[in-house]
Amino acid sequence: MNFIGSHILSVSQFQREDIETVFNVADKMIPYANRDRVTRVLEGAILGNMFFEPSTRTRVSFGCAWNLLGGEVRETTEVKASAIAKGESFYDTARVLSGYSDIIVMRHQTEGSVEEFSAASRVPVINGGDGSNEHPSQALLDLFTIRKEMEGRGKTVDDLRIALIGDLRYGRAVHSLCKLLSLYKNIHFTLISPAELRLPETYVEDIKASGHVVVESEDLQAGIAHADILYVTRTQEERFPSQEEADKYKGLFRLNQTIYTENCEPNTVIMHPLPRDSRGDARELDDDLNENPNLAIFRQTDNGVVIRMALFALILDVVDQVEKSARDVNWYTAGRFR
Ligand code: NCD
Prior knowledge:
It is built from twelve helices and eleven strands.
């Protein structure tokens, strides 16, 4: 695909070679994310960061990624703080805000909303999550993490065995990740969820049509036994018709150190798009795994910065200029990025 000036709305836009392009640029961004080097390549450029649904890491990492390339961020959060609460259409909002920004990242609770917005925008728009539909940048950072974790274990994304656990019905991160993984070869998907929260049939059919194996299960212990990756998810309470309905699924599939030790092969990687629900009766990913070296959740969040920097650099066509304005940093850095 041609990244320059493109909207990023769905992972369906990507072929394998496009993913390689993003990952190669992301690798080049590591010295900047690690604060070894600074660049001002996007000096003067403005990101319109519009998050109409709760967000910590997606919103802040998109903002930081932009800042790390030297740009300024203008943020709109919550519908009630914007003129959408006064009845303004996506069309008008998009026409207005695209006059103030060089690129827009948008998250909204309605499926298809970001696409509708992008159709009226005069600048590229990146989907930061539209309802339970898609979350393309999350899937890219997840796949980037999977690739790195597998490389460290002498394996590849091809032939991967992944268990996806929890709310597979409403989880947009899962939806986008399944589509991306389908571009690889010979993946074994184990889908572990309550029957009511199964991965929607269209995704299952598409995965199978791409030649992969899908096993659906309601048995956590058996399902995680031979996986390379466990991808745990939160019950997407905000998508349920009522809190009462969502509460039925709380705590049904909980991964903790004991279950991990008793059932998983050594070095099985544990992932989660986060946030994990750490409230007493949910806890789908227990705190007692925090010191487990195979817990990759904070490597995922770190990887989100370089993936989002890569998307910005590719869309705005500055990949080859990043180094030109770069210098070493002149403050203490902890060197925290791996
Ligand atoms: C996910 C999302 O918003 O879809 N979070 C994220 O962006 N990392 C997953 C979730 O909210 O459970």
